[in-house]
Each structure stands twice: as structure tokens, then as C-alpha cells.
Amino acid sequence: MDKVRKMERVAALTKLMSDRPRHLFSLSHFSELFGAAKSTICEDITTIKETMGHFGLGTIETVAGAAGGIRFIPTVSAKETDRLLNELARRLAEPDRIIPGGFLYMSDLLFTPHLMVKVGEIFMERLAHLSPDYILTVETKGIPLAFMTARAFDLPLITVRRGSKVTEGSAVSINYVTGSFKRIQTMSLPKRALPAGAKVLIIDDFMKAGGTARGMVDLAQEVGAKVCGIGVLVATAEPEPKLVEDYLALLILHDVHEHTKVTDIRPVLTSG
């Protein structure tokens, strides 16, 4: 191939790494791809790292050793995080979002890619210390959020079903009680979805009493996996305590007045 100029390599490297956050690329891979020496690739990576750091877009992490390489770690600044969470709170407080029963219509936001990409990166930043092996969610509205979180972690997403599908083979099913309405429901997980001993991070869009999250914790334990953390976009202030502990919520829903159409929802800001 024709010799690739530095500007072209930097643009291509940035695209390739940002498309797969946290994925470990070997220097040999890029060296062969661009027909350039590893030392040249390292110089390009330094340029990218400095630029990303200058604009607060992320960093490049170098992993030493034979199995090492480089990976892009996206970051969302405290200022940008607070701005996004304030925007989501403002939009969720719109009067026409109130649904009978004290719930909010959230689907349009959950299915807006650029919003969920950022929320997924926020979850990744705040929960990376848990070092999960898989992201776990329940169908259906929370899937886009969980999927973008899985992308930010560079991990597989496992979806728990409300019921079982014959196309997924044998499954483990449990009955659980919803914390808010005290109804008995069923959720299932294919036996081959999670290996025993895997660490899973639960991500969901909404938590009221925590019954669904509790069900996912119990289901993961049934297949021999361990839940290392729980993240939800919106959690209600009441009831308290929930059926699960140690969860991270990005927004807290304090009250919904169906008659006055006033919603009190507040972001959990980095500034406290």
C-alpha cells in the first residue's frame, strides 16, 4: 500500500480506537495495518493522547508485556456529566411525560443513541472499579442503556427475559415479587449465557422498590454468577430501603403529582 501520512494515521487510529472503547489493540496490529514501525505508531498515539487529554475526551492507556497493547478509555468530565444529567432531569420533568401510577415516559430518551452513549460512559467511569465480566439487564426498555454501557466497558451484554424462549435452549427460571405492586412474575436466563463465577454488573432504566433488580441478582446467583454492582438511570426516593443495596442511581425521582403535572426529579451531581 502507498505510504500513509501521519495525519491520516492519526485520524484512522482515533476512529478505530474510539469505535471500540477499552478494547486492547496490539501495536503489531496497527503497525501491519499502516505499514509503519511500532515507534512511529507510538508517536502517533502520543499525539492522540495529548489531544484527547487537552479536550477532556478520554485517554490512551498502555498495557505492557507480551499480551499488552493500547486502548482508548473514554472520559466524561464532571462538568459534562452534570450538564447531561441536568438536561435529562429537565426533560423528564416535562408535564406530558407523567403516566398514571406515578411513572414517567422515558422511551424516547432511552432510544436516543447519543444520549445513551454518554450515559453508558458515565456508568463505565463510575463503576469501572468493580471490574465486571458481563453487563446484565432485563428486557426491554433498559436494553439500549445497558447496551451502550456494555460498549463503554467493551463487554458482552446478557439480557434476562420475562419468560423463556425455546430458541435459546435450556434456561434457568425464577419467580420474583415486584417490590411496588407485589405481583409474582417470572424471569429466565439461558444456562449458557453466563459461566459460573462470572462477575456481572446490572444496568436498568428505572427502579422503584427494587424487585426486578432483586430478581436479577437471584437469577444470576442461580447460574453461579456473582453480581458486583447495580446501576440505574432513575430511582425513586421512596420506598426506602430498596430490596437491593449498594446501587448507583444517576437521577432520583422524589415525587410525581398526576393532577398538577409537576415532577420532582433531581440529578445526582458529581459536585454532590
Automatic annotation (TrEMBL):
Gene3D superfamilies: 3.40.50.2020, Winged helix-like DNA-binding domain superfamily/Winged helix DNA-binding domain (1.10.10.10)
Name of one Pfam family that matches: PuR_N
Bacterial purine repressor N-terminal domain ranges (all copies): 5-74
Keyword Acyltransferase appears in the UniProt entry: no
Subunit and partners: Homodimer.
Family: Belongs to the purine/pyrimidine phosphoribosyltransferase family. PurR subfamily.
Name of the protein in question: Purine operon repressor, PurR
